[in-house]
Structures are given as C-alpha cells and as structure tokens.
Amino acid sequence: MSIISKDISKAIALLSAEELVAIPTETVYGLAGNIYSEKAIKAIFETKQRPFFNPLIVHIPSVDYLNNIVASIPEKAKLLADAFWPGPITLVLKKKSIIPDLITAGKDTVAVRVPNHPKTLGLLNQLDFPVAAPSANPFNRISPTKPEHVEEYFKNQIKMVLDGGPSKKGIESTIIGFENDEPIIYRLGSTSIEAIEAVVGKIEIKNKKEVSPQAPGMLERHYAPKTETVLTDNLQKIIKEYRGKRIGLLLYNDILNDDAIDFKIVLTQDQNLEEAASKLYDALHELDKQDLDIIIAERLPDYGLGKSINDRLLRATK
Ligand code: TXA
Ligand code: MG
To answer: Global pTM?
Structure first.
C-alpha cells in the first residue's frame, strides 16, 4: 500500500507521536520530526544515513516564531526574513538553549526557515513544536521534488508522505549565515543572489569546496545520481568521447539532435531559469532510471537561478 496521503490530521498525529513524516515544501520534500523528540531526531539521521556532524534545518510557522528559538537577530537577518518568508531562504542564527544539540550538531547556531507551502504551513500552525526537516533523500542522493521520489527511497522506513504535489521551486533554499552581523551565502539555492542583494546589498559567497564546509551541503559530491555525470559547455566534444556508450543528455536548450543519444531531457523551451530549476531533480531522477553509461549535462547561464543549478550539477559530477 502506498504511504502517500493527503491527510493532514494523520500527519499531525504521527508527528505528535514522535514518528517521522515526509512533508512538502516549495523547494524539495523534507523528512520531518519533532525537534524536541530525541527519538524522532535520531530516526531522521538513521533513515537518511546522515552523519551526526551534519546539522538539520528547523521549520517554523511564521517570522514571529523566530524569537522562540534564536537568541539574537541581526538587522539584516530581520530584513531578509521579512522580505522572503514564507520562502526559500534559510537563516543560520545564534540558537537559544532550548534547541537540542542533536539538531545543530553541537554548534551554537541553528538553521531556520518558514517554508512556503500551504499544506506544510497549515501543519506547522497546528503543531505545538517546530519540525526539523532535511531533504527527504538518503545521504548524497538526489533530493525529492515529488511524493513518489520519497516513496521510492523510504517506503519501508517511514509511515507517511504528506502529498503536496510537485515542489514548485525544485532546488533547496539558499542558506545565509552571519559573521559580525553581515550576511554570507553558505549554499546557493532557490532564492537568487540578485534578489538577496536587492534587499541587503552586496553579499559574499562562501560555498567553495576549498573553504572548510560551513554547511555540509557544500560537500563536493552531493545531490548525485548513481549514473556517472559530467557537466560541460561543449556537448559535441563530450558526446564524441562517449560514442558507442548509452548516453543521456540533460539540456538547457533543445538544440541538439544526434543519433548517438539514447535519452534526453530539456529543462526549458524558452530559457526560463525558474522552470529549469523546478524540473532539475525530477530530470535527474528520470535519467538515473534509464540504465545509461553517462549523463551529460549542459552548463546553464551563470546568473540568477542558473548559478544555483550549475552548483548542483557540479556536485552531481565526480
Ligand atoms: O530547502 C531546504 O532547505 C530543504 C527543505 C526541506 O526545507 N531542506 C534542506 O535540508 O535542504 P538539508 O538538511 O538537506 O540541508 C540543510 C543544510 C545542510 O547542508 C546543513 O549542513 C546546513 O543546512 N546547516 C544546518 N544547520 C546549520 C548550521 N547551524 N550552520 C551551518 N549550516 C547548517
Ligand atoms: Mg539535502
């Protein structure tokens, strides 16, 4: 029997009983548990096979709720919360002691956001605790943007996926930390740098692999299909190299017709980066099912969400 269900009251009952429920958000599906339940939080790490040093994002129902869990809010954090919540920005702030160390991997900061999905907002408003919810995929695998993706991963491990349809944004939230009260981007994501800079001015990015990982979402290989994947500006050259093998293409523009190609997915017909982001992970899930020797991904333009998509594709390669 399917674990996918639209029943919010069932989700509330399970979460209140310290069980896990996969929940829809506008970015990707999350694997949710009560932040105050040691049993639930341990189950999140176990189910995902995620190392305990990698902290979890806390999901809260409103901007106002923030005061309950963080010790202080820099001015620019408040500006960002007011501008983008509910929405795909995660703020890393000094935590209050009420937040268990297990959630934050012993750090004195907590990552927090208000997700923009009507079902999950409804759920959060009815619970008397926030939920921790990392993306609902096993460690190092592709994040889920549809209830079916979660079911495929975890049908034997969790009791329910709350069905909220496909995730509209399709890549994870942008993570912003603070150093001396100044914002710094730790992970590129569904909110573009340009949109963030319009609110707080020029912002530094620290998501390079050379820098010690502030957010393990920066770990070099992450978000990865099982099939070998390459990212390129020069499709023809790479296709030539792999001629004779089973090739799958992930294209930004549909300009390529070549008999050597066994399977291809085009992310957008009219250069719409939002559309490309929303389709990215489903495309990778599909390509990964085709028994290919190689997935060749075309690099996107390096601005707006194109930057975030390129970041994920780079991490999908070896
Ligand atoms: O869009 C999203 O952010 C999704 C949805 C479900 O909300 N969640 C998500 O969670 O992507 P996860 O766990 O897959 O990625 C969260 C990232 C991890 O790389 C983690 O290391 C980082 O956030 N993180 C969590 N707490 C942190 C902290 N206190 N300091 C620095 N990074 C932190
Ligand atoms: Mg993740």
So the answer is: 0.95
- pLDDT confidence band for 216 (50 / 70 / 90): low
The fold of 229-316 is Rossmann fold (3.40.50)
- Is the CB of 308 inside a 6 Å radius of any atom of ligand 1? no
| pLDDT at position 141 over 50 | yes
Ligand nearest to the backbone CA of 140:
2
User: What average pLDDT does the segment 107-125 reach?
Assistant: 98
Please report, for the chain, the start and end positions of each structural domain, with discontinuous segments joined by +: 4-205, 229-316
Place of tokens 């929405």: 87
H or E stretch covering 41: helix 38-48
- CA 57 / ligand 1 centre spacing (Å): 5
- Regarding the beta carbon of 145 and ligand 1, being less than 6 Å apart is answered no
142 lines ligand 1 (CB under 6 A): no
- Please confirm whether the linkage preceding 24 is cis (ω < 30° from 0): no
